[in-house]
Each structure stands twice: as structure tokens, then as C-alpha cells.
Amino acid sequence: SVERGGVRISSTTNDHAFEDGLPPPLAWDGTHWGTFELNYATPPELDLVYRRLDADGDVVLGPVTVLAPAAAHVSDIDAAWNPAASKYGLFWQEIHNDDIDLYFQVMEESTGTLEGSPTPLDDYFSVIGTYGGSVVADGAGWAVAWTDLVVDLVLGEIGVVTLVNIQELAAAAARAAPVKAMRPTILGRGGAIRRRSGAVTTASPKALS
Predict the structure, then answer these.
(1) I need a surface site. Which of 9, 26, 109, 179 has the fewest CB within 10 A?
(2) For 129-141, what is each residue's pLDDT tens digit?
């Protein structure tokens, strides 16, 4: 839970050690705070819940259930306010048994309403295939990053950070670009990544300009 001067903003009676151990994203939109947390809004799965707070930390909207996917629970959430777009950008993972899907979507701050359709970022075969995630605003749009679990034949399992520019991804999709042009930038050591399809791809280190 989050507390301010002894006033509890949120709480849950359920215990889910992994997700509850992650800090809830907090962002300032210029006039209000936005908080995002995982909660059992529609048990038995974890959902993404949003609250809007005034400058003093008092709740003026929420809790709003932003995401409640059927037969899946939400994990590894992050949010960033983009002043140029006057919107939040959300990153999250959906876990379906042993499958993990990664998404990005824009949210309107005054109601907690998602806009458009979610942008699929990646998918993994196993719950050990990825962890963490962050989204940042760059003034024109958003970029998201997360960590892949990569199998290196020499070093064993290591983490590799994957970075995606949302605007470039959307532009490539709009012009029906081939999948190769839409692949994310891999930051770190190359290695084999097992995707849900069972295909094995290799990634070489790349630097961001």
C-alpha cells in the first residue's frame, strides 16, 4: 500500500509476493499525480488499476480498472506522462500460463480510458523469458525497454535489454514494412532467445544514437 501522513491510498487483502514486491509507477501530469498498481479488481487474476491524485496526494479519481484481461494476469507495469501528447504511455506484460505477451498503449489521464489498440511488443514462451520493463517519454512520443533472459553457451543465462521506439514501430506497421524493419534494438551481449513460436533468433549488440 501507499501511505501519506497516515492516509492509505490503496490496499489489498490478497497476497501475491512477486507482483506486490514491485514499486507502483507514479507520474506527474502537470496538475495531478497518477498512480498505477496491480490489484485483484476482478479475481482471481491481477489487473492494472489507476488512480488520479491532486497535488496533496488526495484521490480525485479511482480506483479505475484500466486492464482486466480474461484468463491472464497483468505484471511488470510502468507508465510515463508525455506533456507533448498530454497522455500517459503504459507498458505491461500479460501472463497466460507459460506465455508472456508485452504491450504498450496510450491512456487518457482524466478518466483512465485506454485509447486505440494495444501495440504488441514481443512474446515469450516461458515465465523466465523476460522480466521488468520501463517506458519513458521523449517529448515526441515514447520508448519502452525490458530485459530478456538470453541463453549464452559460454556465460549461461544473462540479461539483455531490448529497446523499442513506439513511433518507429507504428510508422513501420502503417507502411506495411517487413517484420525485419520492425525488430527492436537489442542492447547488450548477443545470444539465442527462445520465442513462443519455438524459433531461435540471434541478436548482436547495438548502440543507440
Answers:
(1) 179
(2) 666 788 999 877 8
